[in-house]
Amino acid sequence: MFDLLIQNCNALVPENGRFTIRHAVDIGVKGDRIAAIEPTQPDPPATQQVVVANGQLAIPGLMNTHAHAPMVVFRGLAEDVTVHRWFNDYIWPLESNLTPEDVYWGMQLALAEMIESGVTTVTDHYFFMDEAAEAVVQAGTRAALGWAAFGSQGKEGLAKTAVFAQKWHNQADGRITTWMAPHAPYTCDDDFLRAAVAHARRLGIGIHIHAAEEMSQTESSLAKRGQTPIQVLAETGILDLPTIIAHGCGIIPADIPLLQQAKQVGIAHAPKTYLKLGSGLTPIPALREAGIPIGLATDGAASNNTLDILESMRLMVLLQKHEARDPEVMPLQEVLDITFHGSAAVVGLGEKIGRLQPGYLADVVLIDMDGMHQQPRHSLTAGFVYNTRAGDVQSVVVNGRLLLHNRRHLTLDKAQIIREVQKSMTRLAQRVPSKRIQVYNP
Amino acid sequence: MFDLLIQNCNALVPENGRFTIRHAVDIGVKGDRIAAIEPTQPDPPATQQVVVANGQLAIPGLMNTHAHAPMVVFRGLAEDVTVHRWFNDYIWPLESNLTPEDVYWGMQLALAEMIESGVTTVTDHYFFMDEAAEAVVQAGTRAALGWAAFGSQGKEGLAKTAVFAQKWHNQADGRITTWMAPHAPYTCDDDFLRAAVAHARRLGIGIHIHAAEEMSQTESSLAKRGQTPIQVLAETGILDLPTIIAHGCGIIPADIPLLQQAKQVGIAHAPKTYLKLGSGLTPIPALREAGIPIGLATDGAASNNTLDILESMRLMVLLQKHEARDPEVMPLQEVLDITFHGSAAVVGLGEKIGRLQPGYLADVVLIDMDGMHQQPRHSLTAGFVYNTRAGDVQSVVVNGRLLLHNRRHLTLDKAQIIREVQKSMTRLAQRVPSKRIQVYNP
Known about the structure:
homodimer; alpha/beta; Urease, subunit C, domain 1; TIM Barrel; nine-stranded mixed sheet; 37% helix; globular
């Protein structure tokens, strides 16, 4: 007997190192785990909770490996501006307005958007993270949370973020893990980074940090101190701990051996933001060849506008083919490998999520493949990668619990979230440059 | 009194050479035209047809300036292969299976997908176009249709496509226009192209053709005959007629003056296909600077997988910023200008569609902007360009007639279309290389 049964889906499962579709199966869930995937039984026992999938595609829950989710409250306020202006004239002045309550409702809005688009885990890097964690508790998703710290806040500021990390690690039935989150080598000096490492070591957690976001940062770091940002991470001991690096568009060949020697490192790839801000691209082929995991990400909605991992997935593969001018580059199997296994490895949960397989945590998303934009369904995998829209997601299970059913939220109150966020819009749109936390000058 | 009233929308309208949002307006339609756009009246006369928009965003109907719409029947069958293999091992062998009935139902499927995603006009280039035209009559959309002709079919084959063009030009209440559609300079010799020009001249219509699709075609044409594909179009008289060129990724600076001297020429830009096939990109900045209209397109679903112009729009702007490594490139206003005015000019209907303005044809699309991925709505234009999914389209009016209402089709039978297309799937997936119409070797 299962606690939850997903009945009659087509499941995207790993088989002999490849993804394949098992047609007409039931996925049985016990507690927080997938217990069985078996050919559909027409009459499930009436006592268990049943989600009737009617041939929908079941995939492992999508993972967003680097976001600033509550930044949805600034969505659409910083368009068509250079990275310098984006930080100095828009984002940091805007963030001077931010309150804990904004983060609470912004995180709920972001989680609602992500649940509706099949994202079950978010790796987040922002402020007032106690409120973000409370929103995760409410929403029922999985999250890896880090409270962003700037060198300008001093070590007391850093210590407060460590208090958050300690309080919330492995909370919410284990759905929440925490990470120390020093902002970046260009906003934190080496001493500050080493202090973050000491906190992380003490707490038994990892570090989530921006580094080598674009090539100009690498060039500037080399000019100022003779080291690349990745070398700084190695030098300060960060790479001796589990590390998530966003975004790595400025990673150079000399960095690769350092990343290979690291304890456990993954790179979060957010292509829509890179295109929009003109940042270049993460060197995915070189990193993959070196065995460094790549995960999909959206960054914050102030640059990415959406928190849609399906869109990130599609942009990633299209851009890899484009940059190589070779349509054979990154075939469907590799896209799926990065989307699921790569992303899970980046979040440090490669043994627990990212697979529809008995024993793995029950994070499952059901997608309607009946739309006119999917017909006729010669290939469900091609359809998933190239045709599926966030709006095709129908139902979402996280940790064995149903959060979205036929597009209806079971844990979040959409109308209330919209009301709460809208009432702060005018204040949130005010920019106070003199109050910005930093000046961007990497 | 209007025949149709769209009540209480936020309308994207041109004003002093820019796009702006008029909030809370009614759009009144008389016959096939927009008659008025006025502040919302709470109580419209009961006798007219009213579409209650409830604050939805009204935009001009989207235009797809180059497609092979019925190719949806091959969707997902040619993934991760080079352009040579795509043509020679997949598409042309697959098309040897094609029947007029496949085109009829394939066109209905494609039109249903496009209507649902806000596309009201398609410029199509394919085979068995009588059946495609019948599907357009049924669907109620606008279309610019050309029957594709290859040199290998001889002048009799070409003459048959001219019979189609003559029969259908300005039919279906003027919704259908026709174009001669020789395939490309690399599949049609000059004599054949001149014969197409003669037919077009006789019928008073234009030419829709593939040319300089990618740089290798331009290089090969220069090597073989010392002329670029665009020079061939000029030389054979095509550019003396209205011309739609797909895709122009191989246009070089020497081609630009020829395009400027042309009578009326536009370039159809289908970025998803270019990324997927590694074709490079249309040189949009140089073409825009020279005053050559650019329109958005999807190409066929066998390369593009979807017929989603919102996706083409988003990819276009993101790639322009990426290629220039400059986020200030192609700001929102320019995206909107290309999406609406550029596309209308490419289809040769710049004075008739692409604007919500009294006197223009009533092609209007209503978009739900209430989704969590749009909140909070600091900027409706940024939201439209960067956040809107095809599934957000709610209602569609073409030529003053409601085709889609709250996502329900009023002219097409989705269940029947899916049934008809699915029953031919096995046959359609068979590849018969020996029966292919051509060999790709530009």
